[in-house]
Every structure is written in structure tokens, then in C-alpha cells.
Write a structure and sequence with these properties.
Blueprint lengths: L8 E5 L3 H12 L4 E5 L2 H11 L3 E5 L7 H13 L6 E6 L4 H9 L4 E4 L4 H12 L1
Parallel strand pairs: 1-2, 1-3, 3-4, 4-5
Helix pairs in contact: 2-3
């Protein structure tokens, strides 16, 4: 791929190892530094220590939901610099969840399964 995301850090949060691996591989090819977490508490810890440019966040996570991770990331970043961009991914088809995610400041909301090209387009657009 021609796009180069060198110098960007992306935090991928999902409790499904296959999804984590697929996203890590696809985004790693773009040159970004990839950090992963498989539960909500680990996601918050990584976001605080790494200050990612983008978070790809599953809604349904062990230990702390994607919504609670999002609230914590946004609250922490208000005191600092710009908050990371966030793409929330979910298998939940309910529209109420989408509305709530958007009220928290999610930049993109994608239902699983999604095409990898669509996710990569969103990542590039948000980090451009």
C-alpha cells in the first residue's frame, strides 16, 4: 500500500484474537506503530502510557466496556493535548448503541463484520 502512517501510533482493542491479529497485520503494513489490548482495563492503561493517535475499539470487552474505555480516554485527554481519534467496532446491530457512541465522541462506528478496505479508508481519513 502506498499510504504511509509512519510516526503514528494505533491502539487496537478487541477480545477476539483473530480480529486483533488481522487488524495488526493490515495496519502494520501501513507503517504505523501498533499496540494491542484485549480487555478494557488494558486498553485504558495502554492509552494512558502510549498516547495513541487512533484507537480502534471494540464495544463489548471483558473487564471494562468500550463505552467506559471511551469515557476514560476522553476524560483523561481533556486535561492534555488532543484526544485520539476513535473508531468503534461492534457486532451489536442496535442503533441506540451507535447514538450513545457518537455522543461520547466516536469518530467512526462500524458494525462487524466489516470489509478491511473500509476500515483502512477510515483510518487513513482520520490520521490524514
Amino acid at each position: 500500500m502506498a499510504e504511509d502512517l509512519s510516526g503514528k501510533t494505533i491502539l487496537i482493542v478487541d477480545d477476539d484474537r483473530d480480529i486483533l491479529t488481522a487488524l495488526e497485520t493490515a495496519l502494520g503494513e501501513l507503517g504505523a506503530e501498533i499496540v494491542t489490548a484485549s480487555d478494557g482495563n488494558a486498553a485504558v492503561a495502554e492509552a494512558q502510557s502510549r498516547q495513541p493517535d487512533l484507537v480502534i475499539l471494540d464495544m463489548m470487552l471483558p473487564k471494562r466496556s468500550g463505552f467506559l474505555v471511551m469515557e476514560k480516554i476522553r476524560r483523561d485527554k481533556k486535561e492534555k493535548s488532543d484526544p485520539p481519534r476513535v473508531i468503534m467496532i461492534t457486532g451489536n446491530q442496535g442503533s441506540r448503541h451507535k447514538v450513545y457512541a457518537e455522543s461520547l465522541g466516536v469518530d467512526r462506528y462500524m458494525n462487524k463484520p466489516f470489509r478491511m478496505e473500509k476500515l483502512l479508508e477510515a483510518v487513513k481519513a482520520l490520521l490524514d
